[in-house]
Amino acid sequence: MDRSTRRRYRALAGALVLGLAGAGLAGALVPQASAITPPVAFTADDLPTWQTNGVVWSLAAAGSTVFAGGTFSAVRPPAGGAGTEQQAVNFVALDAATGAPTSCRLSFTVGSGTATVRALALSADKSTLYAGGYFGAVNGLAVSSLAAIDVATCTPKNTFRPSFPATVRALAVTGDTVYVGGDFGTVSGQTRQRFAAVDAGTGALKPFTANADEPGRALEVTPDGRNVILGGDFFTVNGTATHALAVVDATTGALTKAYPAGFIQNQSVVKDLTSDATGFYTANEGTGGFDGRIALNLSDFNQKWRDSCLGATQAVLHHQGVLYSASHAHDCSSVGEFPDGQRHHLLAQPVTGTGKLGWAPDTNDGIGEGIGPRVLAVGAKNGVDYLWVGGEQTTVNGHAQQGLTRFASTGDTGAPTTPVASAGSVRPGEVQVRWRTSLDLDDSRLTYRIYRNGGASPVHTTTADSLFFLRPQASWTDTAVTAGQTYTYRVTATDAAGNTSALSATASVTVPTAVQSYPDRVRSDGATLYWRYDDPVTPFVADSSVSGNTGGLHVNGPALRQGPGAITGPGTAIGFDGAVQKVHSDRRQTVTPGYSLETWFRTSTTRGGKLLGFGNNTTRNSSAFDKHLYMTNDGRIVFGIYNGATRTITTAASFNDNQWHHVVATQGPGGMVLWVDGQNRGTLPHTTNQAYGGYWHVGGDNLNNWPNRPTSNYFAGQLDETAVYPSVLTAAQVQNHFALAKAPSDSVVLVTASEDTYVNQGAPDTNYGASGSLAVRGSSLYQSYLRFSLPAAPAGTVLKSATLSVKTSTMSGAGTADTVSVVPVTGAWTEAGTTYTTRPALGGTVLGTLPGVADGSAVASVQLDRAAVAAALGGGYSLALTGPGTDALWLWSSEAAANEGTPQLSLTFGPA
What count of other Cβ atoms lies within 10 Å of the Cβ of residue 841? Predict the structure, then answer.
């Protein structure tokens, strides 16, 4: 790897601090760049690059040329690119900006065995490229695993021919010295075990002696040139114990700093090193041992921080204050990030700490050992920097691309993923719009725009942070809404370069005419997670709490909108199969000392399963898990915590009777209490539990070794109204929740027009029943007719409000400045037969008015006379839209795909 390239740093404009605060990520970011979220310097959009037919082990950059070495025999264009496959024997030179091969051709070969180029480094003036590996000739010139190449002529230097009888794995270059690490025990016939130094011009062996007992894999010269940092598999250097890492004198090789046993676990080795002005950084791989990165000071060579993510780090590269790494990181829970699961192969973090930044392009594991990326380097051309990645990978960002890829410092073209949106309302006068934050692989801070009723302009704009492993819910409360009316919302996400996602699917909500007692009480009692399961979208479970913003994610497709729900009103439940389905919360957290768990359940299962609990994984079984509610095979409910031993309260009665039941579990200074259906079912004095970071799980998670463990970890049945509180609910609160679940509540019925058409005075005998449009105008006359099949009022309720919603079309000038009136139709008409000539008679009572409708495809709503609509319940009801003026209103009909369910009546029923 090109160490001189690594040291081309610009000053970092500021520090990035990432942490969880309030509703999501909060951070102090350096000034915003035009394309990506600082301090990240590269987009995540991979560029077309020629690819190899084998593994790339080494990279170096000189000016606008990037050199790649490895174990391969040919290069070919990227998919869809121009050109044909070319021979490239373990080496290729490429243009940094185009990704295509240059005219430089070198072949690294060996008489027996498999030739490979494992290390590349450039002289300080970039005139000489040094190549190490296992080979016996370069373009036919006999060499021994180390060669010097004249960059200008692309020819091996005959005057530089030291003899290394085994594989060279690492190189570092100063003005007059080439430092070498690898598997060798001698150099040019003299003892040098795993590390050596030769003259940069002649290749003559230097006195430098840093003998190690196991292979050397990484080298870095300190910026002052006084010391050399060694990395590898070794346990001793010059006879002194120091495992995997050591610092030696640059002239003599004498040990400057040894690292004691345990500093790096015996199973872990250092695969790569990089440095900046104040520190150096390791890339560690360890089977069952340390797999991450260590930052150390150059002043005293002691540790600054340690990133203990698991996933075999192969390469590290410092660039403009950011540490880029190649690995297959699969578990970063030890540093408060993602749990064991999916592999992530390219990461970025500030050099000041372990927190990951918003840059996460990805590859697969690929061929060979299946490690993925192996090496990183930066090339530049015409003022643009390019991060090159080489390795075993055969895909990049989900498409085929083998061995090589690259990312530029400009030209961010990838749009964020489409937000998943939801809307809910439990009080007149307010709607909570919430969405799962989007993923953008090189922008962690995105701008969200919320559009109401199909309008062309957003009603609200906000920003929120997200990372590839942390996409918390964001939300906004719309207070400019009217009780009884139905509203639709859509959300977009835009990155710093202006790339914008598609609009989210439409989220629809009807504002209640009265406070919904049960959900309003859950919110006011302080729930910080409240999952109501009323949304039809996947894979997102919206959090309806006031400010918790702890959304959920479906696993394996639980059944949505199962009715009836547990409480009165229009709500629905979620269904689980008892085998693989569950929901987990979307961000890692810890549990407060005092807390409450609450949910409703209905089941007839005889296999038990977990209803609700806390665990340290997401999609996989947790290895730490407690603070949970589960059911035994015979239907009893168990509340359990772990504080050095399992502590459980178990009900005497069974509750698998296929009826809805309410369960609450609390733990705090007064101990543990379990409530079912408003009754105290047991207590224990324990006030503490296992402390760890984790996620809330609903419907399933590990139950291994818990008392009365059921047959299944997964619950088969329905759950509803799940809530978690950062405090202990009192007996009065628990009993109040149970009672309020059956309190009278508003319900909403949405009725779409069964027939609609319009008439046109200018075409008096034309029928428009199949048209996708409706029209309203006074002169010359357009008049629209709508028919609805109204339901009867549910037993014990009356109609509280009726709202008509229509949507303007996308044609220019579709809106109107005229007042549009809604009147009853008294005459007969049909969608297929009505024309201007046969138009029906209208009633004289105005049921509601729209005082002008703005242009732009948007939903407009009007409240109708409640008594008139109530009188028509249980039968057919026809309405006409009329206008007095000459400014036509154009609407979508029920036949139009863009109508968002309009024309539509929203009927709100409530207690008589």
Answer: 10
Average pLDDT, integer, range 901-905? 91
**∠87-88-94 over CA atoms, to 5°?**
120
The per-residue pLDDT for 856 is 79
CA 160/CA 607 separation, integer angstroms: 74
Burial of residue 739, with CB atoms counted within 10 A of its CB: 0-12 exposed, 13-18 middle, 19 or more buried:
middle
Backbone dihedral region of 657: left (phi > 0), alpha (psi from -120 to 50 degrees) or beta? alpha
To the nearest 5 percent, what fractions of the chain are helix, strand and coil? 5, 45, 50
Q: What is the pLDDT of residues 802-825, one digit of tens each?
A: 999 999 999 999 999 999 999 999
Mean pLDDT of the chain: 94
Strands (E), 351-459: 373-381, 384-391, 395-396, 399-400, 404-408, 420-427, 430-436, 445-452
**Whether the Cβ atoms of residue 616 and residue 623 lie closer than 8 Å to each other:** yes
Q: Are 79 and 98 in contact (CB under 8 A)?
A: no
Q: What is the DSSP letter of 281?
A: E
CA dist 473 and 462 (Å) reads 13
Whether residue 48 is preceded by a cis peptide bond, meaning omega within 30 degrees of 0, is no
Question: In this structure, are residues 31 and 62 in contact, taking their beta carbons and an 8 Å threshold?
Answer: no
Q: Are β-strands 24-28 and 17-21 bridged in parallel, bridged antiparallel, or unpaired?
A: antiparallel
Cα–Cα dist 299/660, whole Å: 66
Give the residue among 912, 890, 894, 896 at the shortest CA–CA distance from 904. 894
By the 8 A CB rule, do 254 and 272 touch? no
pLDDT at 32 (0 to 100) = 31
pLDDT per residue as tens digits for the range 674-728 = 999 999 999 999 999 999 999 999 999 999 999 999 999 999 999 999 999 999 9
- Decide: 273 and 255 in contact? Cβ < 8 Å: no
Its sign, for the CA torsion 675, 678, 681, 684, is positive
Structure tokens at 154: 């692309």
pLDDT digits (tens, 9 = 90+) for 1-56: 333 333 332 222 222 222 223 333 222 222 233 357 899 999 999 999 999 999 99
Q: Supply φ then ψ for residue 518, to 5 degrees.
A: -65, -55
Q: Is 74 strand, coil or helix?
A: strand
Which structure tokens are listed for 789?
């099949």
Please give the Cα distance from 549 to 564 (Å, whole number): 26
- Give the separation between CA 785 and CA 794, rounded to whole angstroms: 27
Per-residue pLDDT of 90-136, as tens digits, reads 999 999 999 999 999 999 999 999 999 999 999 999 999 999 999 99
The CA-atom distances, in angstroms, between 479 and each of 371, 431, 492, 530 are 52, 7, 20, 21
Q: What is the pLDDT of residue 36?
A: 79
Alpha-carbon distance of 37 to 29, in angstroms, equals: 8
pLDDT tens by residue, 286-327: 988 899 999 999 999 999 999 999 999 999 999 999 999 999
Q: What is the identity of the amino acid at 272?
A: D
Distances (CA, A) of 502 to 227, 314, 420: 54, 37, 11
CA-CA distances (angstroms) from residue 134 to 164, 196, 861?
9, 16, 76
Which has the closest alpha carbon to 424: 576, 552, 531, 563?
Answer: 531
Report the pLDDT averaged over residues 223-236: 98
β-bridge pairing 86-87 and 74-76:
antiparallel
User: What pTM was computed for the model?
Assistant: 0.89
Other Cβ atoms closer than 10 A to 711: 13
Mean pLDDT across 347-357: 96
Retrieve residue 758's tokens.
């319009």
Q: What is the phi/psi pair of residue 240, to 5°?
A: -100, 135
If one counts every other C-beta atom within 10 angstroms of the C-beta of residue 705, the result is 8
Assigned token pair, 73: 């025999």
Rounded CA-CA distance 472/661 in Å is: 30
